[in-house]
Design goal:
By secondary structure, this protein is mainly α. It has two domains: about 45 residues; about 50 residues. The chain has six helices and two strands. It starts with a helix and ends with a strand. The model has no long low-confidence stretch (mean pLDDT about 80).
Length: about 110
Amino acid sequence: MTKEQKRQIRLRISDLFEENRKQHSFENEQEIVRLGKLLDQEVTVEEFIKFKRGEWGAMEIYYLINHVPMIGVERTAENLNRSAESVKGKFYREIQKQKNFSPGTGREVS
């Protein structure tokens, strides 16, 4: 990894810290950790970029919820072009949302 690539990663981490300070975001925290790992390890930039990042679409969430129990996290991650860590975390958060949702009222249960 070149000095310039490392500098760009550090700048991105700095920007994410600033964004997170203004408005807390779990996704920003995950990105900071991922970028930190990239700096810590000698992972190629191509390996780092190969996974999709960012917002989850409705169809991706639907696929995730219905396929992780059947084919597992690794295979679902591969099919969605997402990291296994990302799929596992999103699956857990979606299951928690479903547990806290009351179908009769359409509201979250406290």
